[in-house]
Amino acid sequence: MFLPETAIFCITLLVYGAILLLLIYYVLTLADLECDYLNAQECCRRLNFWVIPKFGSHALLCGLLLLGGHWIMFLLNLPMVLWLFYELHRQRRDSLGVYDPVDIHSRGLLKVHLRNCMIYLGYYFVMFFVGLYCLISSLIKGDPIKRYEDDEIITDF
Amino acid sequence: MSAYNQNFVPPAAGTANGNQGSSLVNGLPGAVPHHQQQPPPSAVAPASAQQYLQQKAQQQQQQFQQPPAQPYPGISSNSSLPPPPLQFNSNIANKFLPPSSTSANNGGPPPSTLPQHLRPPTANGPTSLTNGSNGAPSANSSRTASPGLIGAPQLGGLPPMPHNPQFAHGAPLPTAVPQQSQSVASLTSNMHQMNLHRTNGPSANSQPQQQQLPPQQQQKQQQQQLPLANPMAGPVMGSKPPNLNPSTSRVIGGPPTVGGVQPAPVLAAGQRIMYGGAPGSNEQQSQNQQNNNLQRAAPPPGAGTAWPPSLPKAAVPGIPPPMQTQQPQAQSAPFAQQQPQNTAQSAPFAPPQQYQYGQAYQQPLHQPPLPQQQQQHQPPPPTGMFGAQPSSTPLQYQSQPPPPSMQSQGQHPYAQPQPTSGPPQLGAPVPLNVAQQGFSRLWGQDTIDLMQNRHILSPATLPAPKVVLHNQFHESINCSPSIMRCTVTKIPETNSLLQKSRLPLGIVIHPFRDVNNLPVIQCINIVRCRLCRTYINPFVYFVDSKMWKCNLCYRVNELPEDFQFDPATKTYGDVTRRPEVRSSTIEFIAPSEYMLRPPQPAMYLFLFDVSIIAQQSGYLEAACSVLNRHLDEMPGDARTQVGFICYDSFVHFYSMAEGLNQPHEMTLLDIDDPFLPRPDSLLVNLKECKELVRDLLKLLPKRFAHTHDPGSALGAALQVAFKLMQSSGGRITVFQACLPNKGPGALEPREDPNNRSAKDVAHLNPATDFYKRFALECSGYQIACDLFLMNQQYSDMATISGISKHSGGCVHHFPLYQKTKQHMVDSFRMCFKRYLTRKIGFEAVMRIRCTRGLQVHTFHGNFFVRSTDLLSLPNVNPDAGYGMQISYEESLTDVKTICFQAALLYTNSEGERRIRVHTVCLPVTSSLPEVMHSADTEAIIGLLSKMAVDRSIASNLSDARDAFINATIDVFNAFKIAQNLPSGQSGQLIAPRSLALMPLYILGLLKHPAFRVGTSTRLDDRVYAMDCMKTLPLDQLMKFVYPELYKIDGLIYHARNSNASTTEEDDEEDPLPELPRLQLSAEHLDSRSIFLMDCGQLIMLYVGLNVPPDVLEAVLGISSTAELGDYVYGLPHIVSAEYDILQRFLLRLNYDKPYSALVQIIRDTSTAKGQFIERLTDDRSESSLSYYEFLQHIRAQVK
């Protein structure tokens, strides 16, 4: 094991927090587009910029959890990573990204994107607390107050 | 054609086109002389006063005591009688006027002071004569109080008269005919009712050719009309109101009520006269024809009250059912009697053969007026739609008694005659079930068993269904169906109702269509809703004189002070006189708030592919010579700039700086990182450097004649073109002849030629995002890219066309272009000429607004959707159509009507910022059968084809094909449920009349190059066909999907006949006979006839093997079919009556098209026959079903 358990969960928590903030930014940007405060091209350019970092960070996190041997956390994260991967790779060859300015306004795609963002938000929100729980439990697992150590010291003494 | 714009403010600046007649004749914007003149104010006043009256009266319902608001100087000066003070007088005066008084110039009755729509038709007589002889058949023209129109010199020699707003399409008005005197009493006493029925009244008059006069009267009238019968009112111009589909005003029925008791006897008489009195001699026939012509200018008798004129068969509400259900033997009786009429109208020239499917000809016998109607390109009577019917299969209508609400509303999607009180009286004597059938047909609610009626296509161009709004004023001014059409003419109340009907909801729109007499307004502030920014339109509600309620968001807005001012009359008064409120298609000259930057000049940049393949095809020569010839006709002002770039493996620039006496060429070798060799003089002012530009155009073809460079660096050329145009925006025209294979955006061939007929078509998607990205960038800088692809081999249209798709451009495709193929060169020249000279709008945006509760869901066409309802169109051209799918946001239970408004903001070539606004208003209904009956098949097909293209790109082709079939099955299923028909299999396939043609068109689509499988189709051709589906305006799309087939024997017969009888007759006055449209099946072909198929950009003449030599001689100048080659294009020039009439027929077919179609002559035994046969989509082919089989397939699926 190259990293202590707590460190892994700290990273997990940080990644979740960052993605949550990013998703709030996504929702705001898409809402701007819906309200016509933003040009579709500009909006998609902004959103597409963050698609890869989002996917990459989550994929790295997944790998980290796997290496750390946290199987349950890994399995919880895997579906989202697979979905993001699928989303990236189902694009057609002429597509300008996950958010394509040309058809974001047609076939209710904007609504779909907004809905997806909301689902992501919910997922990461839950996962954030799961991560928090894991962190705390990993912190208290090793008897952080070291009561028994003290006892031992006393008895030894 | 918006050269006919008139500015309303200042009135002195108002321009008028004095030559509307000629403009209509050639239909080409460039060819129209523009006479501009200032409208005489006196002529302006009466028109607007009348309109004011009309509007006013409508609102207040005070018809009787309406004092004349304005004197009628223009009229009283030329009318023999002084204007009567009260409208009663005028009615009476008119009533007793002999017919001659209305038809003669000087004897015109004084205009009634009544608002137009309240007047008995006679009172409108002279106005409509003006209108008719004027030959300006535009509803807009007359409605909008356009000073120019009124001030225009009347071709008929009539002095300026007020235009009757009601009588659109240059429709003649009723003359005073004796019958009228009978009805006038009831007319005047029933004014109120009259108002009610005015819905129908005006259109009754707008179909003057429908009327039937007693022979002697006809003759008399004819003589009187003769001086008036303007040769310009000939078939071509009179026949095509370019901006308004005639069907908008096709409602009839006022008369029967007004005339209360009369209709029946009169009708009977009319019938008798029509059939019994049908003259047998040639002379009489020609007179009839001439009469038909004249009747365009002649008013219908009996003030249109005698019977609803627009319906041949159903004109006689009581009578038609028996006629419709006639058994063969019953038909044979009238046949002999009617034969002369028949031959006069549509008889083929070989009488012994003409009856082999004689019923097809015979049916029109019951509709004597039909030919003229078709000739005016007015929609045929719906009853005639299923008229062409073999006698062996009697018509079987499933008559559905209309719901009671229908009776009161009298709604009828197909603009059927709808006598509100007439039919019960008329129908009383006939047996009940027949009467019911008649009813349901009258209300357009009848159904039809498709299995029994295989010959379902109407003999004429099908009308767009009429929108019925229960508001006569609104109906008369609703947006023309040729501009905006919805897939249903009654909007379902809720989404669930729409889902039940299984119909697609959407609009197809042709916003920049060339229209005549477009009202143009210049005002300081354009009145718009504060909340939703809707432009004020005729369908808003005026709370009082200071407030108006938006019809889209229902906000109550204030009216600015100056809106009270009527620019036409320069008076303060009623807001309803404003042109904004009087026309649903209008153009504003935008003030500076609508500009983000000064309006851009016209900028044209041409990119020529000069690789070796391009040089072999030799397109450059043709392109340069056309450009050279039409350099002056390109739209633009003094600031117009042009530039040229050629590219092979490198990019060649041409500098035409001042002081140079020859253009300088600069070659850019670094195509991976292209840059501009010099900042200026690559785009030069056309006016200043015209000589240099001409030199260059002469030099270019020679310069690259001997090139051997196989490369084509399209991507690099586009990038430098973008840099060149970046600062101003404009149009880039790309000529590409091969696959771009160098530099950025290089492509690889993807198509497998052996796989062209495979079931799964791959590579419909672009191969790279380069072109799309480029187009989006262009769109941001107001640059549009148009593509002319003249490829020899696979050039990946799917990828390259991205530059046009997302930048608002257009795509033209000339596959296998070779300079040695003269017909291709001609076709390209015509296309390119139209392209260069047509109108253009720069830096345009279009916004579609709809009533709260609805929203636009998906857009189809070439543009970039910038925000939810805003389309960015760097360029807009008059040949581009768009489609939108509509979805529900909330239900529409509390509204009666909904509106769609399309506003197109653009910079015209003169650097003026303009806004063109179209508004269409549709009623809302809560009944499923009503929705189904109000469906508009053509619009549905237009929308379905666009959706299918999306589907085949997003998914695959077989999905799209399945979707077509499923859509058809679903619709018929839904109709079965709506009608409560027993479920389960039966031998029938019941369809509402409105949707009866859907399977036919769907089959046409399935066999279309865009969607067919099993037949070898080049990938580029398929992609181009798909692109056309997305971008063609609806009228052309329908020809593209289901070509029109005619048997031209009728023309030849007509030509010979009229020749023999009336040699001294001016040919121009001779109307074209109406040819029935044939279904696309080989069963209609025969070896002794010539057939004409109009596929849009190609017209094919199919010459049978045994066509009589004299016909061949007269039409084609050959003595036997053996003299025809395999591939013959273009008609030879021959002097003969038959040839003339064929030319006129072709002219008429080409009238609506952007440029005239190429004519191909196909001999029965030629190798080109396959091209003709493959378009016979009703027939079975190796890999596809015949129409009947397709119907059976549908029927088996309908539960």
From TrEMBL, chain A:
<protein>
    <recommendedName>
        <fullName>Protein cornichon homolog 4</fullName>
    </recommendedName>
</protein>
<dbReference type="Pfam" id="PF03311">
    <property type="entry name" value="Cornichon"/>
</dbReference>
<dbReference type="InterPro" id="IPR003377">
    <property type="entry name" value="Cornichon"/>
</dbReference>
<dbReference type="GO" id="GO:0016192">
    <property type="term" value="P:vesicle-mediated transport"/>
</dbReference>
<keyword id="KW-1133">Transmembrane helix</keyword>
<keyword id="KW-0812">Transmembrane</keyword>
<feature type="transmembrane region" description="Helical">
    <location>
        <begin position="7"/>
        <end position="28"/>
    </location>
</feature>
<comment type="similarity">
    <text>Belongs to the cornichon family.</text>
</comment>
<feature type="transmembrane region" description="Helical">
    <location>
        <begin position="117"/>
        <end position="140"/>
    </location>
</feature>
<feature type="transmembrane region" description="Helical">
    <location>
        <begin position="58"/>
        <end position="86"/>
    </location>
</feature>
<dbReference type="GO" id="GO:0016020">
    <property type="term" value="C:membrane"/>
</dbReference>
<keyword id="KW-0472">Membrane</keyword>
Automatic annotation (TrEMBL), chain B:
<feature type="compositionally biased region" description="Polar residues">
    <location>
        <begin position="16"/>
        <end position="25"/>
    </location>
</feature>
<keyword id="KW-0256">Endoplasmic reticulum</keyword>
<keyword id="KW-0968">Cytoplasmic vesicle</keyword>
<dbReference type="Pfam" id="PF00626">
    <property type="entry name" value="Gelsolin"/>
</dbReference>
<dbReference type="InterPro" id="IPR036465">
    <property type="entry name" value="vWFA_dom_sf"/>
</dbReference>
<keyword id="KW-0653">Protein transport</keyword>
<feature type="compositionally biased region" description="Low complexity">
    <location>
        <begin position="324"/>
        <end position="351"/>
    </location>
</feature>
<feature type="domain" description="Gelsolin-like">
    <location>
        <begin position="1074"/>
        <end position="1136"/>
    </location>
</feature>
<dbReference type="InterPro" id="IPR041742">
    <property type="entry name" value="Sec24-like_trunk_dom"/>
</dbReference>
<feature type="compositionally biased region" description="Low complexity">
    <location>
        <begin position="131"/>
        <end position="142"/>
    </location>
</feature>
<dbReference type="InterPro" id="IPR007123">
    <property type="entry name" value="Gelsolin-like_dom"/>
</dbReference>
<feature type="domain" description="Sec23/Sec24 helical">
    <location>
        <begin position="936"/>
        <end position="1039"/>
    </location>
</feature>
<dbReference type="InterPro" id="IPR050550">
    <property type="entry name" value="SEC23_SEC24_subfamily"/>
</dbReference>
<dbReference type="InterPro" id="IPR006896">
    <property type="entry name" value="Sec23/24_trunk_dom"/>
</dbReference>
<feature type="region of interest" description="Disordered">
    <location>
        <begin position="364"/>
        <end position="431"/>
    </location>
</feature>
<dbReference type="Pfam" id="PF04810">
    <property type="entry name" value="zf-Sec23_Sec24"/>
</dbReference>
<feature type="domain" description="Sec23/Sec24 beta-sandwich">
    <location>
        <begin position="841"/>
        <end position="925"/>
    </location>
</feature>
<feature type="compositionally biased region" description="Polar residues">
    <location>
        <begin position="87"/>
        <end position="106"/>
    </location>
</feature>
<dbReference type="InterPro" id="IPR036174">
    <property type="entry name" value="Znf_Sec23_Sec24_sf"/>
</dbReference>
<dbReference type="InterPro" id="IPR006895">
    <property type="entry name" value="Znf_Sec23_Sec24"/>
</dbReference>
<feature type="compositionally biased region" description="Low complexity">
    <location>
        <begin position="44"/>
        <end position="67"/>
    </location>
</feature>
<dbReference type="Pfam" id="PF04815">
    <property type="entry name" value="Sec23_helical"/>
</dbReference>
